[in-house]
Design goal:
- In the N-terminal section; belongs to the NnrE/AIBP family.
- Helices cover 42% and strands 15% of the residues.
- The protein has helices spanning 13-24, 29-45, 61-75, 93-100, 110-115, 134-142, 180-183, 187-190, 203-208, 232-235, 247-259, 273-277, 290-293, 310-322, 332-336, 354-361, 368-379, 414-427, 432-448, 456-480; strands at 53-57, 80-84, 104-106, 118-122, 145-149, 171-175, 193-197, 213-215, 237-241, 264-268, 284-286, 301-304, 326-329, 349-350, 382-385, 390-393, 399-402.
- Bound molecules: ligand NAX, adenosine-5'-diphosphate and potassium ion.
- Residues 62, 121-125, 148-151, 153 line the site of potassium ion.
Length: 481
């Protein structure tokens, strides 16, 4: 694994336990806990004026961080109380942190939470393994302003799922790296502002945790830059299958492919060719039979699905797969394979939204990462599940979470643009998972720059700049490592 990818990893709670175990043999947990609690106190002090703070402490190391934070806030002369759900295990680092806090202790009750101006939730963190009891939730629900140590104590750090109904927090202070549960909804909303503190975790301990989920950012992948010796075929040819009834979707995908830097974009439209010829003059429209078009070996990458009926998919997708092409299947192709995902075997990338995913593999449930990873393994292709946070899995188990996005992307045809962008990156020679990840990021970047209430055509004008920015950021990331 490249070192710089560790920068973007999102370790799961189980991987954090491995990391902590490795750290306990090097620096010791007590030193890390001290820095973690200090970071919580600092984050609170830099955001809030001095006020009455109640720290809710659980029995594990999350609680330990809470005692340390309480001690540092008290040292800064803030009025602080601690309410312990249960005492920490004797002999452990949390027990030592509890011992060092010499301030006020109060009962773990809703009344005490209500009286505080600010409640720091250090009940459960990475160790959360079931829904907290009402005794815990009733206290958390009474708090006004909430700050989480690591995670809100009812949010699953792996999936972002809420194991109980709870309030939204103002701030979460996590350590080393954010966890998937900070990025995935609903945890993404519940956690409020996210601060990730460097607590001096040795990088080899993080490496020992073998993280396999990443935040999608340039540097996790790099997009090919323009080269002086480039010609249109070296930049890559994108071919699309065009249908008779819904040419708009195919044209949007073709426009996305062109705007993100494809050297040449062609639509294979058979007898529907005339409808496409009225469109953008930079597009090449083919009316020859697909078999004849496939004799051109330069046409390696095909996008099949946007704007196609099931019959049109049936007539094209199996031919493309049999010809050994890199096929990105989207939209109509995913409907065609609903209930029979094996029909997609041999394609390289699929880009379902949640409805298409459910039609192929069943509803993903609370653990989207696992569901998308399982689907990628099952079909031996890259699966990109679109959403407010997009999940991109490779058959070898790697997963990226793309939160570089905006609700402005939620406009009809936006998914067609995305598939066109990914096709361009595949045609530029990027590996399949990296191309899908980069495509999601460029799409998000274009959406973020497309102004207020954009329509789908507005994204295209920002894709070139998005690609340039991704190239620059990936180069920066490589320099920093
Ligand atoms: N990852 C890191 O680098 C570091 C982590 N630290 C802290 O350590 C925390 C993890 O500590 P622990 O592994 O001790 O786990 P926690 O403190 O999160 O949980 C403690 C124990 O509570 C029990 N528990 C879980 N869910 C429960 C529920 N719903 N009801 C009742 N009991 C429940 C479990 O048996 C669990 O082992 C992190 O969240 C973080 O705050 C820091 O102290 C230092 C460094
Ligand atoms: N709330 C949101 N926040 C960020 N991105 C979103 C949101 N809603 C949708 N998107 C993105 O917009 C695109 C919509 O694609 P899709 O559902 O296929 O729409 P269509 O079929 O109309 O093209 C996806 O890339 C998705 O990730
Ligand atoms: K917590």
């Amino acid at each position: 694994m490249m070192a710089h990818t560790l920068r973007f990893c999102l370790p799961t709670p189980a991987q954090c336990a491995t990391m902590d175990e490795a750290a306990s043999r090097i620096t010791g947990i007590a030193a890390l806990m001290d820095r973690a609690g200090w970071a919580v106190a600092q984050a609170v002090r830099s955001r809030f004026a001095p006020c009455r703070v109640l720290v809710l402490c659980g029995p594990g190391n999350n609680g330990g961080d809470g005692y340390v934070a309480a001690r540092y806030l008290e040292r800064a002369r803030w009025p602080v109380q601690v309410a312990a759900l249960a005492e920490p295990r004797e002999g452990g680092p949390a027990a030592e942190a509890a011992r060092l806090f010499r301030g006020n202790r109060v009962a773990f009750t809703p009344e005490n939470a209500r009286r505080a101006d600010l409640v720091i939730d250090a009940v459960f963190g990475a160790g959360l393994d079931r829904a907290p009891a009402d005794e815990v939730m009733n206290v958390i629900r009474e708090a006004g302003t909430l700050v989480a140590v690591d995670l809100p104590s009812f949010v699953n750090g792996k999936t972002g799922a809420a194991l109980a109904e709870g309030p939204d927090y103002a701030l979460s202070v996590t350590f080393v790296r954010p966890k998937p549960g900070h990025i995935l909804p609903p945890g993404r909303v519940t956690r409020g502002e996210l601060v990730c503190a460097d607590i001096g975790m040795p990088m080899r301990c993080l490496e020992a945790a073998a993280p396999d989920i990443w935040l999608n950012q340039p540097g996790l992948w790099s997009v090919p830059a323009m080269k002086p010796e480039d010609h249109k075929y070296s930049r890559g040819v994108v071919s699309l299958c065009g249908g008779r009834i819904m040419p708009g979707a195919t044209r949007l995908a073709a426009a996305g492919a062109r705007a993100s830097g494809a050297g040449l974009v062609r639509i294979s439209a058979g007898r529907a060719a005339e409808a496409y010829r009225l469109g953008a003059p930079g597009l090449v429209i083919d009316d020859a039979p697909l078999a004849a078009l496939l004799e051109d070996e330069r046409r390696k990458v095909w996008l099949c699905g946007p704007g196609l009926t099931e019959d049109e998919v049936e007539a094209t997708l199996p031919v493309l797969v049999a010809a050994g092409r890199v096929v990105l299947a989207d939209a109509g192709a995913l409907g065609w394979a609903a209930g029979a995902p094996d029909k997609l075997r041999g394609v390289s990338v699929i880009t379902p939204h949640i409805g298409e995913f459910a039609g192929l593999f069943g509803k993903p449930g609370d653990d989207r990462v696992q569901a998308v990873r399982d689907a990628a393994r099952e079909l031996d292709c890259v699966v990109l599940l679109k959403g407010s946070v997009t999940v991109i899995a490779a058959p070898d188990g790697r997963v990226a979470l793309n939160d570089h996005a905006t609700p402005a992307l939620a406009t009809a045809g936006s998914g067609d643009t995305l598939s066109g962008v990914i096709a361009t990156l595949l045609a530029a020679g990027m590996p399949h998972w990296e191309a899908a990840c980069a495509g999601a990021w460029l799409h998000g970047e274009a959406g973020l720059n497309a102004g207020n209430w954009p329509i789908v055509e507005d994204f295209d004008g920002h894709l070139g700049d998005a690609r340039a920015r991704a190239i620059a950021l990936a180069a920066d990331a490589a320099c920093d490592d």
